[in-house]
TrEMBL record:
Annotated signal sequence range: none
Positions in coiled-coil regions: none
Recorded GO MF terms: endonuclease activity
Organism: Paenibacillus peoriae
Keywords per UniProt: Endonuclease, Hydrolase, Nuclease
Name of protein: UPF0102 protein J2W98_002557
Matches recorded under Gene3D superfamilies: 3.40.1350.10
Length: 127
């Protein structure tokens, strides 16, 4: 029973995360970004969204919350997570032969309710 509850909770968390990423991608497209990758993975980690804004390559961490019980989405981005995203971005740049393009790291907060998901904050150059 415990494993079933645990698995169900994990699946629900994944579904909420996917919903948050979808809303974030739509938000970014509506303000002129072009999404190039979603959930790009390598051994060092995963980047939720990779986009282009004019000539800048933007690595975006999406944080979704359905409650403020455990703090804001921005508060959930730890120094360890920042290091992981930066390392994963370095792998992406290397694997794609991108050496001199301007890059940036953004964070998007998404508030989830039973009815909808809404972007509540877009921190440009968050880390």
């Amino acid at each position: 029973m415990w494993n079933e509850m645990k698995a169900g909770g994990k699946d629900q968390r994944k579904a909420k995360g996917a919903m948050g990423e979808e809303v974030a991608a739509l938000f970014l497209e509506n303000v002129g970004y072009r999404i190039i990758e979603r959930n790009w993975r390598c051994r060092s980690g995963e980047i939720d969204l990779i986009a282009k804004q004019e000539h800048t390559l933007v690595f975006i961490e999406v944080r979704s919350r359905s409650s403020s019980k455990y703090g804001t989405p921005a508060e959930s981005v730890t120094a360890r997570k920042i290091a992981q995203v930066r390392q994963t971005a370095a792998v992406y740049l290397h694997m794609n032969g991108i050496g001199d393009a301007p890059i940036r790291f953004d964070m998007i907060s998404v508030q989830l309710t039973d009815e909808k998901a809404v972007v509540t904050d877009h921190l440009i150059g968050a880390f």
